[in-house]
Amino acid sequence: MNKTLVCLLLFAGIFFSSCVPTRNLTYLQDKSNNSQPQPVSAVAMKPYRLQTNDIISITIRAIDMKLVEIFSATSGSGSNVSDEQLYYNGYTVDDHGNVRIPVLGEVNVLGLTMEEARQKVEKQLLDEYFTKEAAIFVSVKLAGFRYTINGEVASPGSQVLMQEKVNIMEAIANAGDITVIGDRRSVSVIRQFPHGTEIHNIDLTDVNAMQSPYYHLQPNDYIYVKPLPQKAWGTGTTGLQSFTTIVSVLTLVTTTFLLLTR
Q: Could you tell me if 202 and 225 are in contact, meaning their C-beta atoms sit under 8 angstroms apart?
């Protein structure tokens, strides 16, 4: 009788520990039970500053477009351009932080925001080639928001979003969401800085994740979603899967025992 009870308790313990609870699958829970709106951290909203290997799009316009044609790269400055066109016709920030613009030559944009880079290009054009009457208009944008996501997501790999700001929830949604056996409580963001690489883990099941400076991504971030222990155990992620697996194991053990004791 005692052996039967022990077996039942062991069975129940394995059954419940092998399932993925709902609290580990739900995003941005208010674990403090505080119904007040969560303010967004000002640190997380800082503008992105250009780094080496970034690709930017620079568009120069004027009342007389013939005056600025010599400053433009070849085709690809329009709005309907592919990622491949942006790669070949955009301006890549080299190892010294410079971009090479026709006629203007090398312009250093390392560490500048998009607005600061725009102002620098516009000022150089006005100082060296044009007057204010030419009505020069300069636009500087990132040539797509690039990031890489790997691990327990539906579509791992490098992704490009045609927008300037992306948060980690948007990035994950774009990759088809985290799988059932992905650990939402510890999603790693690997980020490059001039001084080196930093790794930070975010608990996406907690609403306080929005306070993290890593909640809002930067171009070229790498996101890694770790697997839950259930994947290593192989017992299933739902109650039915776990029940089926455990019953199969117990059946195999019982059959083996009976064969050996005959």
A: no
Contact 228, 24 (CB under 8 A): yes
Cα–Cα distance, 171 to 102 (Å, whole number):
35
Does this model's pTM top 0.90? My answer is no
The predicted-structure confidence for 74-122, as pLDDT tens digits, reads as follows 544 444 556 666 666 789 999 999 999 999 999 999 999 999 999 999 9
CA 155 from chain centre, in angstroms, equals 12
Give the whole-angstrom CA distance, residue 71 versus residue 81.
19
Q: Where are the alpha helices (DSSP H) in the chain?
A: 2-17, 83-89, 114-128, 168-174, 229-233, 239-260
Buried b (16+ CB within 10 A) or exposed e, 98-118: bbebeebeebebbebebeebb
Query: Could you tell me the two tokens for 114?
Result: 């998009």
State the Cα–Cα distance between residues 130 and 48, nearest whole angstrom: 29
Task: Yes or no: say if 24 and 205 are a contact pair by the CB < 8 Å rule.
Answer: yes
**List of E strands, the chain:** 55-61, 91-92, 98-101, 105-108, 137-142, 145-151, 157-161, 182-193, 196-202, 221-227
